[in-house]
Amino acid sequence: MEFIHDRKSNILFSLYGSKVNRIKIHNKTLTVEEMYQLLDGEEKAFSGEIYFNNCDVDLCKVLIFNKTLGEGRFYGKSLCLQDFINEYVDSEFEIITEGYFANTTTYTGWLWENGQPPVSVIMYIWNSGDMVYRVKK
């Protein structure tokens, strides 16, 4: 089933707590797997993919910090999304908060890799097309 995100109303699905372990870009479409929805007061997990259509990869950025935020002084680096995908292929990005603003989607969370303590990450995705949830039954 397909659901199109309406940027003017509440989101249908949430990625809160999802661990994204694969992001791919093909024909200006960015794909993320797994999502959650609150149904009858209970959180249900769904398998599927999210498509960010007409994604401008040059405007997508990922900020990676040296530890989780709120633990004193920190530093980090900024990567374009394609470099993040190439460099962190064996890692998982756990989404803690999400925000949807016009053509920008922002995810903040933790990056897990190689059994190390997580570090904070902020991911900015820019797309002018629909954000489509494709849910597997």
Report strand %.
over 45%
User: Average pLDDT across residues?
Assistant: 81
Rg computed from alpha carbons, rounded to a whole number of angstroms: 15 Å
Helical content stands at under 10%
Protein structure class: mainly beta
Shape: globular
Could you tell me the number of beta strands? 11
Number of helices: 1
Q: Biggest β-sheet, characterized?
A: 6 strands, antiparallel
H and E order: EEEEEEEHEEEE
Major β-sheet strand ordering: 2-8-9-10-6-7
Cα(first) to Cα(last) distance is: 7 Å
Return residue spans where pLDDT drops below 50 for at least 5 consecutive residues: none
Task: Give a structural overview.
This protein has 137 residues and is mainly beta. It is built from one helix and eleven strands. The strands form two sheets. A six-stranded antiparallel beta sheet has the order 2-8-9-10-6-7. The chain has a five-stranded antiparallel beta sheet with strand order 1-11-5-4-3, with no helix packed on it. It is globular, with a radius of gyration of 15 Å.
Which properties best describe this structure?
137 residues, mainly beta, 6-stranded antiparallel β-sheet, 5-stranded antiparallel β-sheet, 1 helix, globular
